[in-house]
Amino acid sequence: MVRAMSLSPPVVDIPDSFVTFKYELPHFSKALRGDAPVRIVAMGSSSTAGRGDDVVPYPARLEMYLRWKYQQPFPPQFKLDVLNRGRGGQEAPDEFERFDSDILGERPPPSLVIWQVGTNAVFRKTHKIAETANFINKGLRKLAGNDFDVLLMDPQYVTAMLRDDCADDSKQMVSLIAAAAENAKVNLFRRWALMRHWHVHNNVALPDMIDPSDQPDQLHQNDWSTMLISQALVTAITRRVATAAGS
Hints:
By secondary structure, the protein is α/β, with parallel strands linked by helices. It has a single domain (2-242), classed as Rossmann fold. The chain is built from eleven helices and seven strands. The chain has helices spanning 26-33, 46-49, 58-71, 92-96, 99-104, 119-123, 129-143, 159-162, 167-184, 191-201, 223-246; strands at 2-3, 13-14, 38-44, 80-86, 112-116, 149-153, 187-189. The chain has a five-stranded parallel β-sheet, sandwiched between helices. A two-stranded antiparallel ribbon has the order 1-2. Helix 3 (58-71) crosses helix 11 (223-246) and helix 7 runs parallel beside helix 9 (167-184). The two termini are 22 Å apart.
């Protein structure tokens, strides 16, 4: 079990099951050993893009933590960048339309693509759940066969997604994203289940994970929970790389 660092109480844990990816990351692992800059594209909506100045979004933290992890064993010229391609309010159909320009058109190309998806279809009801699921599967097919690894991230476990008019859709969306990841044989970072673990098993109140300025929505994570999610994601990625290197 990995202990999570936190700026202040509450103290939470990150069970191994949440930071153990099923599939290897061959393209990202190869890029780390190469001479070219390592690039990651983070595709998603507002929890990728960030909102306001109070919360550092996860792509910026991911970049910082991965640089700390890999600059030590690698030479000084080692370069790793996380390209933030999040746009607030978007969902799978909108993001799919940006794949050519924001992912496939990147030069130099990325070695890892992280697609955070599923939140707005539930909360803002911008698209039907079934339509969103179809576009997630369609998007994964479009991303397949390229020289990069793909990782899905599901919605955040927050008050807005648990209200009466969203709870059933949230549960369905999380299930459909898991099924899409398994069908495409790509890794899934289970943000929903990890945050639920903190709430249910570590007794973290939902307001303690939500940006206090996000009223009345209560949809977006605060800086503390975003930091912990970022650390868990980094642990999952680097652990998968290390496992592959040792096999």
